[in-house]
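Risk register update: the risk of archive-format incompatibility is retired. Evidence:
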Amino acid sequence: MVAGVGGSATGGDYLAALVSTTSAIPVHVCRSLRLPAFVDAGTAVICCSHSGDTEETLACYDQARARGATLYAIRSGGELDRRARAQDIPGAVLSNHVPPRAALGQALGALLRAGEALRLFEWVDVRSAGLAHRVLVDQRLGPSVPTYDNPAKTLAGALRGRLVLVLAAEHLVAAADRFKNQLAENGKAFAATLSLPEAAHNTVVGLENALAHSDHLSLVTLESTWHHDPRLHHRFDLITTMFDAAGIPVHRIALAGESRLADLLEATAWADFVSCYVGLLNGFDPTPISPIAQIRAALADRADRA
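Archived output:
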């Protein structure tokens, strides 16, 4: 069980996606103030909080200890760090010089080490996946690549002012959720996540009224060239054709990672850069997250008064 919320939980989503088809041990992510009832002394609970002060994560930490679960703590400081040090809980200390959503690589690295120790997998080629991510950023998506040769900048221009539906399948659903969240935090824009094959059994019916939405909706797909079930490729073709026929712009991103991890990191790069470019086009600095700060302040004030 990976316990965390926001950007600190994304690494847990990625870990669960990576091991879902190979590990006999299930991996779940808890974004709640309360752990599920099945968490007990036979469960490993990895508490992730970049700040170390996230109320939900600290609550799960206390519950996991009370139930005798094996604990790990991934944090950059705060109360979680103090408790982990005082109680000799293993884990990892992250850099606190970047926002949580920019620390995904650090958190995921720590989670992969924990997953290895817990025997969720034998080996993951992190180096090759990381190098592929760097090449994609440097040569195609990064700020130094001019707009005419930069598909992320082009896509950001097409998505500006629109509600984005991000469609994915299998392991890339985790990256689609990341894309949605990055559009919110960096782009200051609303987005939603859809998954296949589920979307083909319900969401597509909404296309019957698509003309009412076509001027403010866009569909972005994250598609794995090598790692999807072949039957899913046909479903992507069908559903994108239907969206296109309904007048909703479709943007298909083909990912060709040599592994599931490489796929996830490529999709992450797309999400990070497209969302930042959308924010800049909307006239915002992508970094501040004022509404979240407002909620945290209100929660802290309530705790102080209690």
